[in-house]
Amino acid sequence: MTPRRFKAKVSPALLPFGRRLRRFRDAKGWSQENLAARARDGEGVTPQYIGAVETGRTRCTLEFAREMDKILEANGELITLWEDLVKDAAFPVWFDWVSIEESAGALESWQTMLVHGLLQTPAYATAVLHGNAEAIAARLKRQEILAGEDPPDCTFLMDEGVLYREVGGPEVMRDQLEHLLNPPSSRVTIQVVPSHGEHIGNVGSFTCATLEDLTEVAYVETVARGFTMGEVEDIFEVRRALREIRSLALPVGQSADLISRTVKDRWT
Q1: pLDDT digit of tens for each residue in the chain (268 aa)?
Q2: CB-based contacts of 248: which residues, under 8 Å, 6+ apart?
Q3: Contact yes or no for 125/140 (Cβ under 8 A)
Q4: At what angle do helices 170-180 and 252-266 cross, to 10 degrees?
Q5: Cβ 162 vs Cβ 117: under 8 Å
Q6: How far, in Å, CA of 138 to CA of 122, rounded?
Q7: In degrees rounded to 5, what are phi and psi of residue 230?
Q8: DSSP the chain
Q9: Distance (Å, rounded) from C-alpha 227 to C-alpha 210?
Q10: Rounded CA gap, 167 and 177, in Å?
Q11: Residues 195 and 201: beta-carbon distance below 8 Å
Q12: How far apart (Å, rounded) are the C-alpha atoms in residues 241 and 46?
């Protein structure tokens, strides 16, 4: 399911903090790139993350606020603002998943019905999206994060039934499964979970993203649309489900063997 894109919106609670952060950055004469490079003792974060914080589109941690306060010589003002404005702010329900996905350091996904969008071939995506050219282009554009210089660490867990569920015909399925055997990045792990009706993952598909400041955001798919969640209680349940599903997954090598056999026995 393609995430619903929204016009740029911000959280009323997060925006004042972001504006003050930007004023301190501007006072130094630094760009977002300059500030990003100075974060984490020189290890850096992405300029996109700095931008998301400044525009109120994401909630940073107290540790990040302290670091920015020190680097920008804010004399504790950013820490105080974090306590007053950011500490209890929740991620808005309209938060755009694509922007999270692009800036994530790690992604962990569970798919019950279809191959994850980041791993879909053009033909598979075309079939799933019923030939909608704009949606197809957007989905394929998202996949560029896996081919970049610093792709996120990705774990894709998928129900065994995904391998057998025909999408677009035998040739499309064959090419799709062969694509899974040659992931676009060494940081991509693909594991198959034998089909069972008892485990918690049967409720539906979801993905959990870990941002550079270790904040976690989950994306959950529904029949109407996908939506994000960032509340601690919600993330706890998502993590619990991922642990249970991962415990049932075949090892990477066995998963690859099963995919290969399925290509030969069912789609060739």
Answers
A1: 333 333 344 566 688 888 899 999 999 999 999 998 888 765 667 888 888 888 887 778 888 899 999 999 999 999 998 888 787 665 554 456 777 788 789 999 999 999 999 999 999 999 999 999 988 998 999 999 998 888 999 999 999 999 999 999 999 999 999 999 999 889 999 999 998 877 787 888 999 998 877 778 888 877 666 777 777 788 899 999 999 999 999 999 999 999 999 999 999 9
A2: 193, 194, 196, 199
A3: yes
A4: 160
A5: no
A6: 11
A7: -135, 0
A8: -PPPP------TTTHHHHHHHHHHHHHHT--HHHHHHHTGGGT---HHHHHHHHTTSSPPPHHHHHHHHHHTT-TTHHHHHIIIIITTPPPPTT--HHHHHHH-SEEEEEESSS--GGG--HHHHHHHTTT-HHHHHHHHHHGGGGSSSSPPEEEEEEETHHHHS-SS-HHHHHHHHHHHTS-SSTTEEEEEE---SSSGGGG--EEEEE-TTS-EEEEEE-SS-EEEE--HHHHHHHHHHHHHHHHHSPPHHHHHHHHHHHHHHH--
A9: 16
A10: 11
A11: no
A12: 29
Q: At what angle do helices 47-54 and 15-28 cross, to 10 degrees?
A: 130
Q: Which amino acid is at 177?
A: L
- Type of residue found at 256: A
Tokens for 193, please give them: 């979970």
Name the residue with tokens 């995919």: 259
